[in-house]
Design goal:
- It is a single chain.
- This protein is of the alpha/beta class.
- It has one domain: LmbE-like (Rossmann fold, 3-Layer(aba) Sandwich), CATH 3.40.50.10320.
- Helices cover about 40% and strands about 15% of the residues.
- An 8-stranded mixed beta sheet has the order 3-2-1-4-5-7-6-8, sandwiched between helices.
- Helix 1 links the parallel strand 1 and strand 2.
- Helix 1 crosses helix 7 and helix 2 runs antiparallel to helix 7.
- The structure holds zinc ion.
- Zinc ion binds next to loops.
């Protein structure tokens, strides 16, 4: 299966992805979202904030605009690159997503489920990729919102990054010779440090270049010295060719197209 030979049969299906900041979608599971979209699924992204507290790789990118505005545009560009059909951007405070506006974000996720009737929902796992409290907050809100549908809930999937993967990316991109060995200021070893094991993986080797292209749409977040900007295509395909998921413990009664795309976790 590759991008030139799309898998048929996913039209009429919708997947809702819920993340915290512009760029989470591309980093966490950009390959899976692009593969779903190519297969005909409608992919909807709910982003809880505009990422206004993020770093800025190059001040000239802001011109006279504020970061929230610029990152909103970057997110729309990344969404186009991945084939995401609808982007719902909420205005909750970046940096305070775990505690601020709890009922509002819960309601927005519930409303998105009612409106789009997704047959699967994707969000962060308990570890928030690297214990980012905004990510943990979005995980909690999404879990409770999906759970509120009881047995009618769509299946919920947690995406994780395995421990060691981002360190391998840094090494492949040049290791200690790199000007920047961190990801958005986060140490490579923090990713996956507290992740529970995945239960299935999705092969996105043919979509890795789209994932990297989507990440690079987030220009304020990814300057030329970023490890993802330095890694070559072959290495990227090898290291980022699988995205890792675990089904959440909800009462939902059906399997989604996400599991149909999945395969067992390879034995290391
Ligand atoms: Zn984030």
């Amino acid at each position: 299966m590759d991008a030139a030979h799309p898998e048929p049969g996913f039209s009429g299906h919708t997947i809702l992805a819920v993340f915290a900041h512009p760029d989470d979608e591309s980093l966490a599971c950009g390959g899976t979202l692009a593969r779903l979209a190519d297969a005909g699924a409608r992919v909807v992204l709910l982003c809880a904030s505009r990422g206004e507290k993020g770093s800025v790789s190059d001040e000239s990118l802001l011109a006279s605009r504020d970061l929230a505005r610029v990152r909103t545009d970057e997110l729309r560009e990344a969404a186009r690159t991945l084939g995401i059909a609808d982007v719902l951007i909420c205005d909750h405070p970046d940096g305070d997503l775990r505690w601020a506006d709890v009922p509002q974000l819960h309601d927005e996720i519930v409303e998105a489920i009612v409106r789009y009737q997704p047959d699967g929902v994707i969000t962060f796992a308990e570890d928030g990729l690297y214990w980012h409290l905004d990510h943990v907050g979005v995980h909690e809100r999404t879990y409770t919102a999906v759970r509120s549908f009881g047995a009618d809930a769509p299946p919920l999937y947690y995406v994780t990054i395995p421990k060691g993967l981002m360190r391998d990316v840094v090494e492949a991109a040049g290791g200690s010779a790199l000007k920047d060995t961190k990801f958005w200021g986060i140490d490579a070893d923090a990713f996956g440090e507290a992740a529970k094991p995945p239960t299935f993986v999705i092969d996105v080797r043919a979509w890795v270049s789209r994932k990297l292209a989507a990440l690079s749409c987030h220009k304020t977040q990814m300057g030329p010295s970023h490890p993802f900007a330095r890694i070559d295509n072959d290495q990227a395909q090898e290291l980022l060719g699988l995205e890792h998921f675990r089904r959440a413990p909800t009462e939902s009664r059906w399997n989604s197209i996400i599991e149909r795309m999945g395969q067992p976790v390879p034995i290391a």
